[in-house]
Amino acid sequence: MSERSVIITGSANGIGAACAIRFAKAGDRLILVDTDEVAGRAIEEQLKTSDAKVSFVAADIASRLHVHNVIAEVLENYGQVDVLVNASTQYLSSSFLDTSEEDFNALLQHNLTGTFLLNQAVAKQFIRQREKQGEDINASPAQQAIVNFGSVDGVVTQAEHVAFAATQGGLQQLTKAIALSLSPYNVNVNTVGTGPTRGEQEGARDDKNLPPLKRWGEPEDAANLAYFLSTKEAAYITGQTIYVDGGQLICNHTNSETDLSLDKS
Fold first, then answer.
1. Which residues are within 8 A (CB) of 85 and not within 5 positions of it... i.e. 6 or more apart?
2. What is the rounded (10 degree) CA torsion for 248, 224, 127, 135?
3. What does the alpha-carbon distance between residue 37 and residue 20 come to, in Å, rounded to a whole number?
4. Rg of the Cα atoms in the chain
5. What are the beta bridge partners of residue 161?
6. For residue 185, what pLDDT is reported?
7. How far apart are CA 235 and CA 264, in angstroms?
8. Domain count of the chain?
9. What are the distances in angstroms from CA 210 to CA 57, 149, 151, 217, 219?
10. Is 264 among the domain residues?
């Protein structure tokens, strides 16, 4: 699959950058979005050296105006939107008793309100495109998809992740509701839930308590799943959170004494 127009947020580093590389490799046309303009421009230039069609936009998804500008940019460059990969996630490690109202609200604003604003803007553009093309919404599934990135903190968490866990649980429910809303339009909406991943949430990593696969995830692990969920091969998957966590959720990781040894002999 190639020549789709794909928005990728959080693309300056980590999982978002890995997604940019993965989708560019497939021949997709990219709009990269991040608040870190220096790192974002670097990824843009890196991909352009391999002849990828790519443009970077410095934007904060928690701002309605910035989201409008992102949509305008993709339409100016490519004329349409086919896929959204929302990998822009903010993280906070702070105990329940020490978390301020300001920090709690800031995380909600970015991880939930920002996701809502961006998903809604892209969804409206999807529908405008299909109406303009006169496409029968009951015909074969369109190649339109939304992939939001979340975390295992939507299911299990730690005391220091009170604000982050709240946003991750909310993100999963938000994705389900959006998937239901867009199902009449054959738009697939899913979440990729990540476990401990190299380059992401470094402060949350516990080197004494690896997942069953005995390694940290690589950003490419998550990017490969995001790409799959955007293709026709995943056309019958929607409203799901699929985890790339090395098996973390099948064990009790809240107990640091849990024995995850693979060799029981």
1. 6, 7, 8, 9, 16, 19, 23, 147, 149, 226, 230
2. -130
3. 15
4. 18
5. 94
6. 93
7. 41
8. 1
9. 36, 21, 16, 10, 16
10. no
Structural domain including 163 reads: 5-250
Structure tokens at 34: 């991040």
CATH number for 188 = 3.40.50.720
Q: Is 161 helix (H, G, I), strand (E, B) or coil?
A: strand
Question: What six digits make up the tokens of 10?
Answer: 């959080």
Domain membership of residue 148 (yes or no) is: yes
pLDDT in tens, the chain (265 residues): 458 999 999 999 999 999 999 999 999 999 999 999 999 999 999 999 999 999 999 999 999 999 999 999 999 999 999 999 999 988 878 888 888 899 989 989 999 999 999 999 999 999 999 888 876 655 544 579 999 999 988 888 777 788 888 889 999 999 999 999 999 999 999 999 988 787 665 545 566 678 888 788 799 999 999 999 999 999 999 999 999 988 888 885 444 333 333 333 3
Question: Which amino acid is located at 250 in the chain?
Answer: I
- Whether 263 is covered by a domain: the verdict is no
Q: Could you tell me if residue 18 is inside a domain?
A: yes
Length of the chain: 265
